[in-house]
Design brief:
There is one protein chain. The chain has three helices and six strands; from the N terminus they run H-H-E-E-E-E-E-E-H. It has about 120 residues and is of the alpha+beta class. The protein has one domain: Inhibitor of vertebrate lysozyme (Inhibitor of vertebrate lysozyme, Ivy, 3-Layer(aba) Sandwich), CATH 3.40.1420. Strand 4 and strand 5 form a beta hairpin. Helix 1 packs antiparallel against helix 2. It holds the Pfam family Ivy.
């Protein structure tokens, strides 16, 4: 899922920093997960990448990770929904990043059969 640095290293540190469920750790280690389409969101006037990855074999409504990437993957934060519980923020997002993740966590899950693009785009 995350073949490029600094994306891979930053994501791995993010999910190790908290007691993330095994399915989230598997995303970092094995690339396991059903990814929805990547989109760009405006965070305080700066374009950030937002990815949604869902637990394999589960509903995206109850088991998903919304991942917010700063430009060029310099920082990463995530909103984890596990077992349908309220979102847990990873990476200690503040201000505009926290708001963007909270909004992403409120949005409807990616429909089944949506295009998959889980790899970060190469920096330009």
């Amino acid at each position: 899922m995350l073949p490029l640095q600094p994306y891979k290293g930053n994501f791995t540190r993010l999910v190790k920093a908290k007691a993330a469920p095994d399915w989230v750790k598997a995303i970092a280690v094995q690339g396991a997960g059903a990814a929805g389409p990547m989109r760009t969101v405006d965070v305080a006037g700066t374009p950030y990448r937002l990815d949604r990855v869902c637990k394999v074999g589960a509903s995206c409504a109850t088991d998903r990770l919304d991942v917010l990437w700063a430009p060029r993957g310099a920082r990463v934060w995530a909103a984890l929904v596990d077992g349908g519980k309220a979102p847990v923020m990873l990476g200690d997002p503040k201000g505009a990043q926290a708001e963007a993740l909270a909004e992403a966590a409120r949005t409807a899950p990616v429909p089944a059969g949506a295009p998959v693009d889980a790899s970060p785009a190469a920096p330009k």
